[in-house]
Every structure is written in C-alpha cells, then in structure tokens.
Amino acid sequence: MIRIAFTSLAPFISGAERSLQVTIRHLPEVGVEPVLIGPATSQLVTWCEREGIPFLTCPLPFRDKWHPIRWWRSVRRLRTLLREHRIDIVHANQMWSYPAIGMAARDLGLTRVCHLRDEVDSPALHWCCPTGPEAAICISGHIARQAEFAWSTDPVQPRIATHINPVELPPRTDPSDDLWLRSEARLSLNIPLDAIVFGFVGQVRAVKGVLGLLDSLSRLPRERPWLALIAGQDNEPGAPYEKRCRERAARPDLSGRIRFLGYLDDLTPLYRSIDVAVVPSLEEPMGRIPLEAASFSRPSLAFSVGGLPDVVQDQKTGRLIPANDWSGLTDAMANLIDGGVADMGIAARSWVEEVADPVRYARWLADHYRELRSAQSRSELKVL
Fold first, then answer.
1. From CA 27, how far away is CA 33, in angstroms rounded?
2. Cα dist from 357 to 186, 253, 353, 361, whole Å
3. Are 342 and 175 in contact (CB under 8 A)?
4. Residue 381 scores a pLDDT above 50
5. What's 18's DSSP letter?
6. How far is 18 from 9, CA to CA, in rounded Å?
7. SS3 of 116, please?
8. 27-56: per-residue pLDDT in tens?
9. Angle in degrees, CA 305, 204, 269, rounded to 5
C-alpha cells in the first residue's frame, strides 16, 4: 500500500476539489492510501470525516519576506506530519497548495507531484514551485503546453503527464428510465416537464461569462417553453457580479426564464433536469462541467477556449462555438431547442466512459506513483 499525502487549500468546493474527491474515493481500490493535508478552514474537513479519510491540519502558506516565522513553522509542521504518517509521495492538488509541502518533502527526500489545474506561465510556476516537483499532472493539453513552455529553460524539468479529470459515472439508463428520472428531478426543482432546460454550473463571476449567457438567452424565441438554471455563487465579498446577473435576469426579456439555484452540494437533480449544459467561459483550463453533464447523457455547448476542446467533441458530444461569439451561442441553443439533443447525449455518455472513468483514472495514477518511486530508487542507487 502506497501512502499519498494530498494538499488542498479548498476555501470553497469547486471543480478542483470535486476532482480530488472523486480521485480519493477510488484510490484504495488500487492499493493507494490517501491522506489529506490542509488548513483548518478547508471546506474538505467535513467531507473527509464523512468518508473516513484522515485529514491533517496545517496551514499551507506562500513564502514571503513579511511572514518568515509563519512559513518556517508550517514547513516544520509538515515535515513532522509526513514522517509520523509514513508518507511515500506528496501530491499538491493545485499549484497554490504546493510551496510549503514541496519544501518539506524535499527535505525528507520524498517524491513530489503537483497537479496543474489553472492557467500557468513561467513566473507563476516558479513562484509556486521553486523546489521541484519531480512530476506534474496537467488536466488538459492546453495546460500541458503552457507548463512545457514555462519549464522549457530549466536545467531540471519535471515529468509532465496529461490526464483529464475523472468523474463519477451514474448507472446507464435506457430512454424510458431516463425520462422518468428527469421528470422526478424536475418535479423536485419545480420545473415544467415540457420545457427545454439549459444548465450553467460554476462560480458566478465575469470569466465564466454569465452576463453574456443571459444576453444570449434573451434572444431565444419567447414562444418556446425554455428555461435556464444557474447553479453556483459569487464568492467575492458582497457578490457584486452575481447581483448584476440577477438584475439582468429580472428584466422583462428574461423574466420568469432564469432560476438561480445557488451552490448545490449534490448536482444530480440539476444534471437530470437539464437538456443541455452551457459553458460560456471566456477562459477555461479544462472544463469539468461537460464531463459531468456527459455522465448523465447530456451534451454541452461551450466556447472553443483553453482546454474546453479537450472535453467537448464538436458535433458529437456537443457544440464548440468560437470564443466570444454570443450570437453563435444563441443560434446553437436555438438549434438544440429544435432537436438533436438525445443523440448527442448518448454519444457524450459513451465518450466520457472512455476518457474520465474514475476506476481507470485511479489505476493510472497508482501506476504513475509506483513508476515515480521506482525512478527515485534508481536515482538514489546511482548516487550511491
């Protein structure tokens, strides 16, 4: 059994945290024992308690000249935790949770893995990862290309692997069962059974394109029974962007057509209720929502930016629209109102089973860990 210490700040639960949760659930099946390290304020504490995953409390600060004592206390505490819990490899869930654990693990001679889930450039990577890591896992080809360029001039470069995030796969359903489950979900959310329902999931902030989505929706024909669900919230103090979105949704051209659901712990009712997921992000490292929607046999509409082409197969599992083409987004939504959703949804489910199955992902990750440990052992023997 390999013992892996994951680090995560998790000030709130977003796609990065949901990906970590799915990964951790399946690792024991493949001989990996996970431990999670994070600050006491982490939103993963309760989840770990419920799942029986050890959660070790420790701040994960950045190093700066104003708080040297805080930094060294954290590194010392992390070294102690890694020794006491006999950790074999450390794995930062995002580069923001890497600096302190990276230094502590280096001092102990442990292999370090950093998951790259955000847009990266050379200054950001060298600020977050001044020591190591030995390996980096990128969530899309888009992020891998950025990482390769950022590290291209370093004399010692980490191994870079690319692997799409895993998602839980609910049992497959035949059309009649899916119709029944959709009806039940819609009744639970008080949604008309005959409506075409578009769904947005994510943080309600400018980079996610929610205001643009609302404008695009306003141009859809009013005579058709359509509705849009927005699941998520604005995490900025006072939620200024979300307020603008709610004000826009209250105008006469959208009145009664938009439902703000807030943050949802369980997204199953939403995914079962919608016909199409819409991802109007202006930039996106990968895009988890198309994968989650596909697991429920729902296609996605998305702008062709960042890593979204890695998770939406144009004309097969959904539609890719040129970046910032809001009229094109309206046209794509209107076309799906007229039909073709079911066939794309079936194709999306088949595709996501191939690329994001959590058991297959856990098996790959376990093999990756073992290969890294083997490489480290060979390197140590060479030094001796």
1. 7
2. 27, 41, 5, 6
3. yes
4. no
5. H
6. 13
7. strand
8. 999 999 999 999 999 999 999 999 999 999
9. 95
Checking DSSP bridges between strand 258-262 and strand 226-231, what pairing results, if any?
Answer: parallel
Asked if 202 and 208 count as a contact pair (C-beta separation under 8 A), the reply is: yes
Q: What pLDDT shows up at residue 42?
A: 97
Secondary structure letter of residue 212 according to DSSP: H
Q: Which two tokens stand for residue 214?
A: 């609302």
Residues 6+ apart with CB under 8 A from 154: none
- Compute the distance between CA of residue 146 and CA of residue 136 in angstroms, rounded to an integer: 12
Nearest to 97 by CA among 43, 148, 37: 37
Contacts of 39 (CB under 8 A, 6+ apart): 9, 57, 58, 59, 60
Query: Could you write out the DSSP letters of every residue in 306-372?
Result: TTGGGT--BTTTEEEE-TT-HHHHHHHHHHHHTS-HHHHHHHHHHHHHHH--HHHHHHHHHHHHHHH
The DSSP-derived string for 245-284 is HHHHHTSTTTTTTEEEEE--S--HHHHHH-SEEEE--SS-
Which phi and psi (to 5°) does residue 58 adopt?
-165, 135
Rg (CA), the chain: 22
- Residue keyed to tokens 């023997």: 381
Q: Are 294 and 300 in contact (CB under 8 A)?
A: yes
Q: Is the pLDDT of residue 350 over 60?
A: yes
Listed residue (201, 183, 185) closest to 290, CA to CA: 201
Cα distance between residue 273 and residue 264, in whole Å: 14
Residue 354 pLDDT > 60, yes or no? yes
Q: Give the span between the Cα atoms of 111 and 126, in whole angstroms.
A: 18
Compute CA distances 284 → 14, 20, 207, 244, whole Å.
13, 18, 9, 22
- Spatial contact of 47 and 265, defined as CB atoms under 8 Å apart: no
Within 10 angstroms of residue 41's Cβ, the number of other Cβ atoms is: 11
Question: Does residue 133 have a cis peptide bond before it, meaning omega lies within 30 degrees of 0?
Answer: yes
What predicted TM-score, i.e. pTM, was given to this entire model? 0.92
Our separate counts of H helices and E strands in the chain read 14, 13
The C-alpha atoms of residue 83 and residue 103 are separated, in whole angstroms, by 14
List, in sequence order, every residue forming a beta bridge with 114; answer none if it has no partner: 92, 136
The pair of structure tokens assigned to 180 is 């029944």
Q: How far apart are the first and last CA of the chain?
A: 26
Amino acid at 296: F
